[in-house]
Amino acid sequence: MRKYIVKRVLISVVILFFVAFIIYALMRCLPTSYIESVARQRSMAPGSKSYEEWLAQLSAQYNMDKGIITGFFGWFWTFLKGDFGDSWKWTVPVIEKFNDVIWISFIMGAVSFFFELIIAIPLGVVAATHQNTRLDYSISVVALAGISFPTFFFASLLKLVFSVKLGWFDLYGLVGRNYNQLDTWGQILDKAHHLVLPIVTLVVISFGSLMRYTRTNMLEVLNADYIRTARAKGLSERKVIYHHAFRNTLIPIVTIVGGSLPGLFSGALITETLFGINGIGFVSYQSMVGGDIPFSMFYMVFLAVLTLLGNLLADILYAVVDPRVRIA
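and the corresponding structure tokens:
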């Protein structure tokens, strides 16, 4: 196992290098003039340098005056040293802006993913074990409804009912009007209260696909020969389902769980925008629209690292959930 992990880590480093180069090349080819806009704004200040001087300084600062390959190696070397540069749009160090917005998105993603697992997987198992019954049809209808709801529609519906009609939640924002007057525990509860509707939105629109996936794999396992053999030996239906069938159903689900790691940090652009939450999804979108190459590069490479870690985690978990899996 140790040799396998070391080998996979080394392969992941090579993959990350080429992924970072592709991202850098694409970012350099973006049809944006943000550097020119910044240079023009700074040149208008009293006693400032000329537009050409500002443009040359900004281009040299981020290797924009060099070729893509030369510029990439210069950027990659500074990246490895932990120097991620300053955000062009937010005018603060990239890592500082990232730390300010990533954790609220992570909390939203982690909590919603937790509820998605504890809701979708049991419902998928129940639907599979009650195939073609009213219970199965009811669960499938609810799951398909969640999949079919557009995020903006369902979020707007929640806001209309619980914010406008009932007045239980604020329409926008992460904190209430009296946030600064609350103690530490009160501030935590205030933020948690404002995250209820965004988390409900994320859970409802995402649990349906995992439920359907669980149901499909559970049905496939229940029709396997070894399940018929277990039933023929007189084992209880509960032991057949939860000891034999469900354990093998977990194997493909592990792939989804491992692949969900980047999603915990990628944010939810539409949800964060509709509820006025300044998370990483909204900030990264604004950075890309504004041509903020330093922040966009850091964020996309960060997601690439998480994707590689998620794949490695999924492969390791295969051996945990299925003893038959052996890594040579």
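(Above: one complete record from the training split.) The mean pLDDT is 81.
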